[in-house]
């Protein structure tokens, strides 16, 4: 089955340096973040506080690791289960992901062996990007008129993680780099290269996000949609493959502990209260039984 075409678009671009100006400039920046989260579920940020040096070093060392032979990647000094490839749950062609990844929980970042050459760089990247995620979550909570301590208390290093992705060149255009899905977290921060391939749904149509070398991409996850009572949108997105070029990206996922209760911050609530553990178990069960994720509709009142 052919992947439907997507029109190229530029995601909302927000200059976070406005936050430091205070007054009306800061409030306008916060309003832009909230508006993009409501209308798109995706946006880009520049002047985000993560230096080009950190981003460039992260990308260079990430590429070096993915270039190693398969048996070396499997046996590198990462925590067990970190290296993944394809889609183990795929039952047909459209569910296959043409990609490989290192999936590293934040509390394991400092434990990554120095002989990979990645540990110091990963630690710097993880520290700075986690601060940015907390800042954005606080802003989104503030714009809902809510206290922001919820995210600091529940989204701790043991529950958040980094995912380094490689999408090899693919000769079969029907195979996706990553099948359509929504993210099962509060929000995701992505640093991608210039190859492109990220696509998202808006108003029932697929759009291809134009890469911006100076920006990080932010997208809202299922938990923020439930917490905000559908004010902020977790939208379906995918990665398409490229016949000639490989694509690299690094994503940070702001997740709560499994015991954290997710409850809408206003009434009447669209969703019943659930724990993150219950949500993850339901997603895993659906993927196993159906081959795909259902997600939030399972928890509608």
UniProtKB/TrEMBL annotation:
Sequence ranges assigned to domain Fe2OG dioxygenase in this UniProt record? 158-256
Q: Which Pfam families does the UniProt entry name for this protein?
A: 2OG-FeII_Oxy, DIOX_N
Q: Which reaction does it catalyse?
A: gibberellin A1 + 2-oxoglutarate + O2 = gibberellin A8 + succinate + CO2
Look up keyword Nucleotidyltransferase and say if it applies. Answer: no
| Gene Ontology process terms (BP) | gibberellin metabolic process
Q: What is its EC number?
A: 1.14.11.13
Entry's SUPFAM superfamilies? Clavaminate synthase-like
> Which keywords does UniProt give here?
Dioxygenase, Iron, Metal-binding, Oxidoreductase
Q: Which GO terms fall under molecular function for this chain's record?
A: gibberellin 2-beta-dioxygenase activity; metal ion binding
> Which enzyme class?
oxidoreductase
* Highest taxon above the source species: Eukaryota
* Signal peptide positions (record): none
Is the keyword Metal-binding assigned to this protein?
yes
**Family membership:** Belongs to the iron/ascorbate-dependent oxidoreductase family. GA2OX subfamily.
Report the protein name in the record.
gibberellin 2beta-dioxygenase
Name the species this protein comes from: Daucus carota subsp. sativus
The lineage, from the top, is: Eukaryota, Viridiplantae, Streptophyta, Embryophyta, Tracheophyta
